[in-house]
Amino acid sequence: MHSALRFLLQGAAYAAMALLLGYFATLPPYQYGNARLASVKVSLSHAADRVKPCVQLTQEEIAEFAANMRRTEICERERLPLVFELDIDGETIISLRAEPSGLWNDGPASIYERFEVAPGEHAIAARLRDTARTVGWDYASEETVELQPGRYFTITFKPETGGFNFR
Fold it and tell me: Residues 26, 29, 30, 33: is their CA dihedral positive or negative?
């Protein structure tokens, strides 16, 4: 009799856990964004130029290194920060400076921003500077897009494909 009561209580505990898990799996409902607005996401990770340019070594300097340590150039690790701007309909929405990651500031800088915009046609311009220049942009792209309510519009960056990708 004692083991029957134990199995009954164990079954009741499992049923209570299943009901609690079922409740939290369906309620409260989670809404990802406003269904009446369009969401714009900017997501990029890019390594900017180095703070100091690489130094090319002469044949004599290369010969001074041990055979397993020879290289043709010496490069500092530290990288420059990224400077990024995003305009929508001529108004600057994002203007930021992203510092490089890593212990020695030698990794890529990452940017992730998300915001909501009224649906409809918008002129979107994205600009990025990844060199030591102080004026102008290394990458710039502008496009007129139709933003749909309740939908995401994503801006990514890949230098090997020419820069910004709007989709």
Answer: positive
- Which residues of the chain fall short of a pLDDT of 70? 1
Q: What is the pLDDT of residues 21-45, one digit of tens each?
A: 999 888 878 777 888 999 999 999 9
- The string of DSSP codes covering 41-62 is EEEEEE---BSS--EEPPHHHH
Q: 145 and 121 in contact (C-beta within 8 Å)? A: yes
Separation between Cα atoms, residue 37 and residue 145, nearest integer Å: 15
pTM comes to 0.78
